[in-house]
What we know:
This protein is α+β, with helices and mostly antiparallel strands. It has helices spanning 15-28, 45-50, 63-76, 99-107, 176-179, 263-270, and strands at 3-8, 32-37, 56-61, 80-84, 94-95, 112-123, 129-131, 134-139, 146-152, 155-162, 164-168, 192-197, 207-209, 215-219, 225-229, 233-237, 242-256.
Amino acid sequence: MERVGICYHPGLEGAxxxxxxxxxxxxxxxxxxxxxxxxxxxxxxxxxxxxPGSDALICVGGDGTVLHASEVAAQAGTPLFGVRIGRLGxxxxxxxxxxxxxxxxxxxxEARRERRSMVQARLNKDEPVHALNDVVIGRRGVGHTxxxxxxxxxxxxxxxxxxxxxxxxxxxxTGYALSVGGPILHPSSADMVLIPVAPHLSRANALxxxxxxxxxxxxARGFEAVMTVDGQVEQPVPDGAVVHVSRSPRSVxxxxxxxxxxxxxxxxxxxxxxxxxxxxxxxEGGAGAAP
Length: 291
C-alpha cells in the first residue's frame, strides 16, 4: 500500500495515541499517511477530501466510528479496517493490543476484502440516505407508540403498533435487530431483516427479505415518528408519510485477516456462547467430564 488514512474517535481515551502510533508505524514502512479526528458534531470534511485515492481507511474507536466513516468510504470505494478501543464490537477487526502487528499485515497486502451490502431509505420523494447497519422508524417520545404499515413489493403484510420497526442489513443483524430477537445473517448476505420492536397486540415475527425486496413503511395518521439511519442521522417522519427502503447501490469493503470461514466461531466468542479454551463435552457433569 502506498497511501492510507487513519481516523479516530476523539472522545475515546487512548484512541488518539493509538492512531498516532499506527501512523508512525506506517510511515516507517514508507507509506504516505494522513490522520484525522472523527467529529460527531461536524461533517468529517477531511475524510471526504482525503479518502479518495487512499488504499485503506483505518478506523480507531468502535463500531460507531466505523459506521460514521462508512458512507465516505463507500462513495470513494476505499476499504475499511477497524481497530477497537474498549467495548464489544462486530465491525472492528482487531483490538488495541493486536493493532500494530495487524497493521503490518494490512500494509503488506495480506488482508482480504469482504464486501458488505447497504440499504437506502427515502422519505416520500426526498433524496435517499444510505445505511450500513439499519434504518429504524421509531416513536418520537417516551411512553408513546407508533403504528406502521409494512408493504413488501407493494403487498401489505403487517401493521405494527409498538416502539419501532427496523430494516437491517446482514451487517446490522448483529446490532439493534439482534437485541430485539432478530436472526443473525452471514455478513456476505445481501438479504435484509424486517422486525418490529416491542409490538403491542401485533405480530412479533422477524422476516428475512431477499436483496431485491422493496419495503414501504407508512406511518399511520395521528402518529409522529422519526427515522434513524445507522443510529446517527435522524429525520422526522410526519404522519401519513411513507419511507421506502431497498438495497443500496453502494457497498462497503472491509479488510479482514484470518480465515474467511471463521465468522461463526468469532461470533460465538464475541457473544459469550463459548470460551476461547472451551472443549466440547468438558463441562461439569456433562459427557466427557472428569469423574
